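Step 1: inspect the first sequence and its tokens.
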Amino acid sequence: MIIDTLANGHKYAALHPQFKAAFDYLTSTDLNALEVGKLEVAGMKTAVMEKEGVTAETASEKFECHNNNIDIQVLISGTETMGWTPRENCTAPKGEYNPEKDVLFYADKPQMHFTLEAGQFVIFYPEDVHAPMIGDGVIKKLVVKVPKA
């Protein structure tokens, strides 16, 4: 997992062949002007969400990770707290892996929580189990699904 500000996004371009294109888009686009919905950026699926934040307990019900994609989650507005645990420490899968949605849920609880402010991002690799959308008020974010190299 990586947490930083969009102003430093270019520093991560060497970590994955598509990170440069993702961060070029993120830093050259008026994210506040984006409408809720799905779009594609340089072959990567992208979704803009704007929803009311939930409690940590509610978010933990969808404690998730992905096998085939890396998430770059950018907070556009609001304040968002997320739960996190290394996948190697999760022992209680909740159902089967869904290959169509590239998601596996766990019944485990996050070992830690952190908070993002507008203009910050987190990169979740397949080994990062996460519980997003924790907060009070409306959270607007953009998620880029980067295919695992």
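Step 2: inspect the second sequence and its tokens, then contrast the two.
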Amino acid sequence: MAKKQVPPGPPIADAQDAGKGRLKIIIAIAVAFLLAIGLSIGGTLFFLDKGDDKAAEQPAEAGQTATGKPAAIYEVLMPAFVVNFNHKGRQRYMQVSVALMSRDQLALDALKGHMPLLRNHLVMLFSSQDFAALMTPVGKEMLRQQATSSVQELAQKEVGKLAVEQVLFTNFVLQ
């Protein structure tokens, strides 16, 4: 009797076991990938919700800072102020962008009605300065303080209360 010859090679059972092993690895990788995505989304939502809790713990009154003062309100005066000087026989110019800082929106709104008068006071103040003094940081700070007191006096006179806490220079150019 002749036996049937089986070609040499891996047995059929070993090939099936190898296929199942690869399938298990692929499934494990897919589960790990989905778990990583789930943890990422969960962590993001957890931290975003935690930020909302901090906002709820802040003072109940809107517009309050941590120190208890009302929040600052800024009013930018546009266009920028441009004045000219005659310095040592040469024509010189100064351009100043001004912002008003207040903590009372109603008083600031009342002052807006007097903006032409306020701008006139500031132009007269800026044009009466000495060009050489304005070239120093001390001179610029002195001008800012003078502008603040001038605006505060005008607000007290026209509105009846201190509407502006500070006058700020947001741009200052000398030429």
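Step 3: confirm your contrast with the notes below.
The first helix runs from residue 12 to 57. The mean pLDDT is 83.
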